[in-house]
């Protein structure tokens, strides 16, 4: 078998066999296929697509390129996955809720890259919190408290790790078969049986068009079900950041506010939806009952107590979190509206980049972000604003970063004399 022939076939829109896909994944992971040929194949897939069968086979090959975690000793394993966004803190809310309702949340999460945040960076803003545990510690904690979140292990879908890094620099990220197989290979290797996917659309997501996001969601659900897993998806808006606080320690603070029911905004709405769907499919109860149980977990304070127990179990300082005393960067700047009008539109990716400029994100994988940096948005889409009114407050440990970040933020929030006629739906579609 020759990689040249496989590229040539896909270049001419022909379907690849399971053997050809396996050959490519195995030989590329071993280093026997050079990056230029792998990137040519990725580009051909971007341009010509893949059938459901090819997509399933690509996921299967990548999933089996490394360890497959065995969670069969745990009851009701459940996981949620977001395709990534800005101010997207739902994992911090959904996981403790589910742990109070008898589900086993044994979760591997990622770090932020580019304009998107990552759960592991957020958790590491809590002093002492350990995101790297042995397999024994991981399983023991899930059995004891129903919940553990760690960083992805080195050998989880290594083929995807290598391919993702290549796609990132060859403009081959935004392809439905490549995104679907990349995400599902990791989720399936991580061993959970019940999965809800939060597929984002809008200016802060990989895919801006909601109907394309639905296609991605359908593809991932189909792959998961072909693998015998219980998978559902929700397509939700990233036309504006989900939470109002963006940055690592700031998002932990916002999570405590939501878990204490002090904040009942969009992030709570999406979290309740995701948790309810996952509870419903995992325990086989109807959606109405699942919503009631999830809201009760929040309103009774059980989910918040579980959140603090979880922090403590992983070595974090839960007292500091409870008191709202996490470290926030010292240098601040209020960003003011430059004219009267309405918040008409936003470039959510740009808002995420403003947070990165402040130090909260990384532009290359090796960079260590400033976990205390970020921004708080004081306005939402459709809000009326007056010239001079604060639209956001910026936080950075480096004062020279404040002005460039404020320029980026101002360029990302469009103020118009017209009120937007409609707002993008927060929950666009559910795929049950
Ligand atoms: N997240 C992933 O893990 N892979 C992709 O291809 C896109 C987002």
Walk me through what this model shows.
There is one protein chain. The protein is α/β, with parallel strands linked by helices and 432 residues long. The chain has 3 domains: 3-49, Transferase, Pyrimidine Nucleoside Phosphorylase, Chain C (Transferase, Pyrimidine Nucleoside Phosphorylase, Chain A, domain 3, Up-down Bundle); 78-157 and 191-322, Pyrimidine Nucleoside Phosphorylase, Chain A, domain 2 (3-Layer(aba) Sandwich); 331-416, Aldehyde Oxidoreductase, domain 3 (Alpha-Beta Complex). 46% of the residues lie in helices and 16% in strands. The strands form 4 sheets. It has a 4-stranded mixed β-sheet with strand order 1-4-5-13, with helices on both faces. A 4-stranded antiparallel β-sheet has the order 6-9-11-7, with helices on both faces. Strand 4 (194-201), helix 10 and strand 5 (230-237) form a beta-alpha-beta unit. Helix 1 (3-11) packs parallel to helix 3, helix 12 (266-283) crosses helix 13 (287-299) and helix 16 (348-357) packs antiparallel against helix 17 (402-412). The longest helix is centred in the middle third of the chain and has 18 residues, at 266-283. The chain is globular, with a radius of gyration of 21 Å. The structure holds uracil. Residues 83-84, 164, 173, 178-179, 182-183, 206 line the site of uracil.
Provide the residue-averaged pLDDT: 96
CATH homologous superfamily identity of the largest domain: Nucleoside phosphorylase/phosphoribosyltransferase catalytic domain
Distance, first to last CA:
40 Å
Question: What structural class is derived from the secondary structure elements?
Answer: alpha/beta
Briefly, what CATH class of the largest domain?
Alpha Beta
- Output the CATH topology of the largest domain: Pyrimidine Nucleoside Phosphorylase, Chain A, domain 2
Number of helices: 17
CATH architecture of the largest domain: 3-Layer(aba) Sandwich
SSE topology string:
HHHHEHEHHEHHEHEEHHHHHEEHEEEHEE
Number of domains: 3
| Percent helix range | 40-55%
